[in-house]
Amino acid sequence: MQKSCDIDEKVGERIIVRTARESFWHFCLYMDYNFFTRRQKILKPIAEAFQQISEGKLLHLGVCLPPRTGKSYLCSLWCSWELGNKPTSCIMRNSCSATLADDFSYDIRGWIAGSEKYKQIFPDMVLSKDKHRIDNWAVTTADKNSYFCAGVGGTILGKGCNLAAIIDDSIKNVDEALSEPVLEKKWKWYTSTHKSRLESGCPEIFINTRWSRRDIFGRLEERGFFEKKNGGLKIVIPALDEKGNSFCPDVKTTKELIDIKNMTDEMIWQAEWQQNPIEAEGILLPIEQLKRFSIDELFANKETKVVKAPDGIRGRVDTADEGTDYFCSVVSFIYGDKVYIVNVIFTQEGTEITEPKLAQQLIDYHVEVTTVESNFGGKSFARGVKKILKDKGNTCLVKTKVTTRNKETRILMKAAYIKEYFVFRNDYEPGSQYDRFMQSLCSYMKAGKNEHDDANDATTGLAEDIARPTISFLK
User: Fold this and answer.
1) Is 274 found in the same domain as 296?
2) Do residue 131 and residue 270 come from a single domain?
3) What pLDDT does residue 135 have?
4) How do 369-373 and 338-347 pair as beta strands?
C-alpha cells in the first residue's frame, strides 16, 4: 500500500500542473519562480493581460516598458503556453530584425523540445520533423504552421495566424525613430504584409519601446486601437515614477536609473526609459494639443435643427514644389474666432489632377476666397483653376501670394495661433487624405530637418490670411 505522503505528493503535482496549464501567471512562476516573484508587481498585470488575450476578452494589447524588464521573455513564455493549450493553432511574431525574431523563436522551440518543466505541463507537445525551420516551424498536432516570424519590413513565410499576431519592437534605435522614410516603410509593411497574415478575429500584441508617435504603435494609438471600446488595452510604465523612484529595483535601482538619465541624451531617455515619444518635447503641433471636432457636431443644432451659416469660408493652397512634395489645399469654415478645417486635399498627384480637384473642392464647399502660394509655378496653377471655375460659373476669388519670409520662421511663429483658434476634424477615415494631412501636420519638429512641411505651410498660410484684420467677411 502506498504511503499517504506519496499520494499527497502526486495530488499536489497534479494540482500544480493543472493550475499552470490554466493560469499563465502560474505557468510563469512554475517555469522561473525566482525571476517572476522578484518582478511580480510589474509583470503580473501584463501576464493577466496575456491571459485575457487567450480567453478572447482582448483583441489589441500594447505593452511599453523600459529595457531589460523581461517583457519579451514573458511574451515568449506566453507563446509556448498558448500553443500548449491550443496545439492546432498558430502564432506570428515579428521583430525589428530577423536575427532577434529568430532568437525568440529558438527559445520557444527549445522549451517545447527540451524543457523538462515544460513537458510536465504539456507532455503531448512534439516538434514536427517535416517543418522545423527556425523562422517557420510546427508541432505534430498543428494543421499547418505553429509559429513563424520575420524581421519587420522583411518577407513573411508563414501561411496565416489565428492565436496572435505579435510585433516585438518594430524600431531598432533612435536613428530609425527619427527617419520619416523608415517609419513610413514600416507602416506600409504593417498594413500590407503583416496584416495580410491575420485570420479573422486574430488578436494583435505589441511589445515595444515608446520611440515615436509615427511608428506602428504610435499610429495605431492615435486611431484609438488600444481603447477599451475597441477591445484594446495599453500598459505603459516609465522607469522613474512621479516621485522619482525606480519602477522595479530588481531591474534597475533608483540610483542606477538616475545615473543613466544623467549620461543619456534627454530625448533618448524620455523615449527609451520613460516611454515618452521623441516628439513629445520636440513636436510643434502635438495632436493631443489641438482642438478637435466632427462634422456632425459642427452642423448639428439640437434646439433649432437649423444649420448656422459660417461667418466666412476660406481656403489656402500650397502647390508641390518638387517631386516628393505634397499638394495641399485646406478649406475652413469660420465661426467667430474659431477656424474649422472641414476639408483638405493632400496628395502627390500631378497638376493635371490637382487643378480640377481644387476647382471642385472650391465649388463643393462654397469657398469665398482661396490663396495660392505662387513661389514655384503657383501663378500658372492659379490661372488654370480660375479658368475651370469661370467655365463652371463659379465666383470664388482665387488669389496668389509670394512668400518671402523664411518658411520655418513663419511656421514657428503661427503655431500658438493655430493651437488657440484652429479646430481639426476627428472623424476622418484612416488612410484618407485628411488622415495623411494630420499625420504630416503633427509630426513637424521644432528643430531639425523636416522632410515634408506642406501641411504646416498651408495651415500657416491660412492662419496668416485669417489673422489679418482686413478680411471683410470676419465679423
Assistant:
1) no
2) yes
3) 93
4) unpaired
Domain count, the chain: 2
Alpha-carbon distance of 283 to 416, in angstroms, equals: 13
Is 78 in the same domain as 118? yes
Q: What is the pLDDT of residues 400-414, one digit of tens each?
A: 988 767 788 889 889
Grid coordinates belonging to 456: 504646416
pTM of the full predicted structure? Answer: 0.64
CA distance 184 to 448: 18
> 106 with 216, same domain?
yes
* 163 and 224 both lie in a single domain: yes
d(CA 42, CA 36): 9
Q: Domain containing 31: what range? A: 4-280
For cell 509655378, the residue is: 377
Residues 301 and 327 both lie in one domain: yes
Backbone φ and ψ of 315, nearest 5° = -130, 165
Q: Mark whether 223 and 314 lie in a shared domain.
A: no
Report the distance separating Cα 60 and Cα 228, nearest Å: 9
Closest alpha carbon to 361 in 384, 385, 335, 334: 385
C-alpha span between 77 and 357 (Å, rounded): 53
Q: What is the pLDDT of residues 118-146, one digit of tens each?
A: 999 999 999 999 888 999 999 999 988 99
pLDDT of residue 226: 95
Beta strands in 124-237 (DSSP E): 127-133, 136-139, 147-151, 164-168, 204-208, 232-236
